[in-house]
From TrEMBL:
Name assigned to this protein: ATP-grasp fold RimK-type domain-containing protein
BP GO terms, sorted: SOS response
GO CC term, one of those recorded: cytoplasm
ATP-grasp fold RimK-type domain residues: 189-291
Length: 316
């Protein structure tokens, strides 16, 4: 079989499940490769042509991929952030690194459209670079400092600050997974802390705000307000219990919508999840996630799975 769409993802990717169901419903031939199961297939890649032959020994199924491939949905980390709770054997380390390298080698099919191109994802995940590009696109930005010192402007400020990680954090402590969220802190507390060990992002806290999540899929855009009991959430909404969160459809002003498309385009992305704050003075950019999850936003009015499948099959 010659698939039109290549899905590079993982076993437990719920969003990929939704898109796979939609592609199957639309009659679009696709091949899904989960990174945890790569060793169960047999691959032969001719990078110069390029041409890939894939065989699944258990079923006897085989696939041929060449420059007629329409699209690739790259649902893979561009690098692994999490550290295993138990040391990996040399064999496991070798397997993990080499299969990730093989997945990145799918970039030889550069005539296909990608959501998203791995190199673009790598750069777009840099929060400082996001701020630079967002500012150039006309977004308002909160006063921000990045480093491992407390600048005088923040040290002397009387307003609360938001402390963030420079990069997404996923740590292992035994069997526990540890995440970090944006932390609201008093200026006086910051002055008493040892801040030189790791770099951090410090931003001025915005009190009266409504969180906005914008999802860009090709030429389509969806925006929601994130509320709890019909009201805006103070602080980081991600620490609110899921059953207390509400997502209300929201129409962005045309100027903000244009800026979202421009930001996504300049970053070289075809998909992006953008976090904004709505205040009485307008909209403030927080960050963009080129691999942001969207399954929790899917609804009849937000058919995100259908839009992604349409983009992958050239219908959008």
């Amino acid at each position: 079989m010659k698939p039109q769409v290549l899905l590079l993802t993982g076993i437990y990717d719920f969003s990929a499940d939704l898109v796979a169901v939609q592609l199957r419903s639309d009659g679009i031939p696709f091949l899904r490769l989960n990174r945890e199961q790569m060793h169960e297939f047999r691959f032969e890649l001719d990078a110069a042509t390029p041409r890939l032959h894939v065989v699944e020994p258990e079923s006897g199924n085989s696939w041929f991929i060449d420059n007629e491939l329409v699209s690739v949905w790259f649902r893979q980390p561009v690098f692994l952030r999490n550290t295993p709770s138990m040391p990996l054997s040399p064999e496991e380390q070798l397997s993990r690194s080499q299969w990730m390298g093989f997945l990145r080698a799918m970039c030889v099919f550069d005539n296909a459209r990608w959501m998203n191109w791995p190199q673009a994802t790598y750069l777009a995940e840099s929060k400082p670079y996001q701020l630079l590009v967002a500012g150039r696109c006309g977004f308002a930005l909160p006063p921000t400092s990045i480093g491992n010192v407390l600048p005088s402007a923040f040290r002397e400020a009387k307003k609360e600050q938001i402390l963030k990680s420079v990069d997404s954090v996923l740590l292992k402590d035994g069997q526990d997974c540890l995440f970090t969220f944006s932390t609201q802190v008093e200026p006086a507390l910051l002055q008493t802390q040892q801040l030189t060990q790791v770099p951090f992002i410090l931003q001025e806290y915005v009190a009266d705000k409504t969180d906005i999540r914008v999802t860009v899929i090709g030429k389509k855009i969806f925006a929601v307000k994130i509320l709890s009991k019909g009201k805006p959430i103070q602080g980081d909404w991600r620490i609110t219990k899921k059953d207390q969160l509400e997502y209300t459809d929201f129409s962005l002003p045309l100027s903000v919508e244009k800026a979202c498309f421009e930001l996504t385009s300049i970053l070289g992305l075809n998909y992006s999840a953008i976090d904004l704050l709505e205040t009485k003075d307008g909209f403030i950019f927080l960050e963009v996630n080129p691999t942001g999850e969207w399954g929790w936003l899917k609804s009849d009015s937000r058919p995100l799975d259908r839009e992604i499948a349409s983009w992958l099959s050239l219908k959008q």
